Prior knowledge:
It is built from 2 helices and 30 strands. By secondary structure, the protein is mainly beta. The strands form 4 sheets. The chain has an 18-stranded parallel beta sheet that branches.
Amino acid sequence: MLVSSSSLHHSNTPVNRNGGLELKTCKQSITLITAILLIVTLSSCAGQKGKVIERGTIKSDTTWSGEILIKGDVEIAKGATLTITPDTVIRFVRIEPYGPANLHGKETGYNFAFERAELIVRGRLLARGSKDNMIVFTSAEGSPHAGDWGAINFQDSADNIVEYCDISYADTGVHGHGVQTTVANCYLHDNGVGIGFKDVPGYSTRGAMNIFNNRIIGNGGGVLCGKGTRSAISHNDINNNSIYGVFGKMAYSSNVKLNNILGNEKGVILYATRGCRLSQNNIADSVQYNVSMLEGQTWNVDARQNWWGTKDKKKIKGLIWDKDEESHLGRVDFSDLASSPIKEAGVPG
């Protein structure tokens, strides 16, 4: 069961419990007032330690604020909404893989669980920070690493908002199976994958994400658009991720426009993805390929009007793996290329 906020509240300690304390001098009065102020201050500081939340399920509308320490899986049930206020800091303890603090283990038949603590959203999540007061989701460990906690894990859930959040050290920062949500103005870093989602047979919610104005930097993978999903990915900085920037994996439609996709191991990876459109992006400085088609990517890709770090078509082609390298693959159309970096691309301002 979740620990309620009321059970963790620290009230101020009363000093004058007798009510009839008689002060005989001004000096004594000042000393007593000073003592009262000191005790009130110490009590207030104790109240700032925040809430500790064990494994459990949120079954009614709930609001989180302040410091939150999570020590196991927390699930938002269908019909419930969790609202997280600006400047809230949520830290996940690194728990035993599939241990007693997990709601769903390997043997439960729940195929989409992470082995570490996660926030499972079956109802609705409104995590709306602000530019100056971002919501933080991170590890509670003193020396954190990617995968210390699982994910903000949406399951058959719609009308969610993740905005102005700093998300780090997860397996996958924002993850979804059958999810409709907006991820905007966030900073996702030091995760295994920044954002990853796919559609799932049997779920009523069709997978779709709007991914705008985010900095997705220094993860393993940046954005993974999985099976059957539709996505709009615009005005993001998707840079310096150690495996890929954007991965279309059996996605139905991905509109990738006006992003910086720079300095990744591979800029864009495509596998069995239809309807992928790359337009007005800066795609450059990849360690291997700016665009790489994998086995099964037989569909062509419209990649016109992008800046590739150079105007030299031979150099551009040298960093694209498509039909020219393997005849069974589709072809990347990079014609009508931009002649200089696209200033409007990336996070505005």
